[in-house]
Amino acid sequence: MYDGGVKTNYQYRGVDAREMLVASAQKLFAEQGVEATSPRQVLEDSGVGKGSLYHHFPTKRDLAHAAIDRMSVASLDNARSVLMSSGTPFERLSAYLTKPRDAVAGCRVGRLTSDATVMASDELQQPVHDYFTHLIDLVAEVFVEAGATPKRARERAITAVAVIQGGYVLSRALDDPDLMSRAVTGFLDLIEDR
Amino acid sequence: MYDGGVKTNYQYRGVDAREMLVASAQKLFAEQGVEATSPRQVLEDSGVGKGSLYHHFPTKRDLAHAAIDRMSVASLDNARSVLMSSGTPFERLSAYLTKPRDAVAGCRVGRLTSDATVMASDELQQPVHDYFTHLIDLVAEVFVEAGATPKRARERAITAVAVIQGGYVLSRALDDPDLMSRAVTGFLDLIEDR
DNA sequence: GTCTATAGAAAGATAGAC
DNA sequence: GTCTATCTTTCTATAGAC
To answer: What is the pLDDT of residues A6-17, one digit of tens each?
Structure first.
């Protein structure tokens, strides 16, 4: 019997609900963390029904994994595009460090390191681990291009990424985006002509 | 009638229970955050009864406030004692940046900036705000002593504190205390003879 | 001040119809 | 794939005896 049309229809609807769920989860996780976000909130924000949520993501961990993975990949892609653009190594580094950030909102990925739900699961920690590993690698590469030894380049890359993450923490703590700007300026000032 | 002995006894017991509760809360908040810590866990860890908890701290927020206040004050006192010790400005700065830290555990105060319970309450945010404000002031003072202009001293102080906070994030993300060490070494290397 | 018993609400998930 | 109804456990507290 002919039922191709119906099948296709079902599949389209499925993909949409899945996407809506992941998008809402990403948003809510960025705002309040994974631990503090309930399946019910994701349901309400996405407009999707309870049955759909548990069909696509049997547990909260499954939904969290999908959302965290997306956020990490997107953040890394964004960093890569800035760090690998044209310009001198210092220009690219400077462009990455000063790129627009919602500092008071905090880092979507970095904040997960103090989220109980994430830290309780190796699976959820993995994307966070990978994000920072690759980000440091990318930044270190630019320092090497700038003439640093591999060891020193790596050290400075770690410091640079720490400045950003710390900038987020300070901007959030003092509710002021200026802390991020000044942390970055202070760092840039130190690496200039070195 | 004579009942002084009994009264005293009651008071001692009261103070002890209060102390036990705050101590347990501090420990659990440091391990898993405020949001993820339930009154029940604090009860079990402290060995205190449910009645006592709600007698001393009517709401979870009251307990959190007491514990966070303690942590912030203790952390600031610790920083002050290192930054105001004897030695050259660079020696003191270096001593502060390299002092032993449980980097993989994260910063007890800094992690609160991504805790939903804390960020939802001005009262709970206050100690965190004060901690970082005063810490930056202390570090800036040392940079001034080292010969920097007030403005530049402040900028470098913000960068220095960001390096520590970011070092915590990275050490936690990669589950490796070495990230903190290298972030600090990278920074120290840059401010040396400047 | 401390204890035990109780309670309303929400979290996290399952059951089974459609 | 999606929906509604249901369920268990935990959270955050309150009540009232001692």
So the answer is: 333 344 444 699
| Predicted pLDDT at B134 | 99
pTM of the model: 0.94
| A45 and A99 within one domain | no
Total number of residues shown for chain B: 194
Q: What is the domain range of residue B42?
A: 9-58
Which nt sits closest to B57, CA to C1'?
A: D13
From chain B, the residues in CB contact with A170 under 8 A are 132, 136, 158, 161-162, 165
Distance between CA atoms of residues A17 and A23, nearest Å: 10
Asked if A150 and A144 count as a contact pair (C-beta separation under 8 A), the reply is yes
| Digit-coded pLDDT (tens) for A151-177 | 999 999 999 999 999 999 999 999 999
Q: Is the CB of A177 under 7 A from strand C?
A: no
A25 shares a domain with A103: no
pLDDT digits (tens, 9 = 90+) for A126-145: 999 999 999 999 999 999 99
**Measured in angstroms, what separates residue B70's CA from nucleotide C1's C1'?**
23
CA–C1' distance B180–C12 (Å)? 37
Whether residue A138 lies inside any domain: the answer is: yes
B15: contact with A, CB 8 A cutoff: no
E strand or H helix at A179 = helix A178-191
> CA-CA distance, B14 to B191, in Å (whole number)?
51
Q: Please report, rounded to whole angstroms, the spatial distance between the CA atom of protein residue B180 and the C1' atom of nucleotide C11.
A: 36
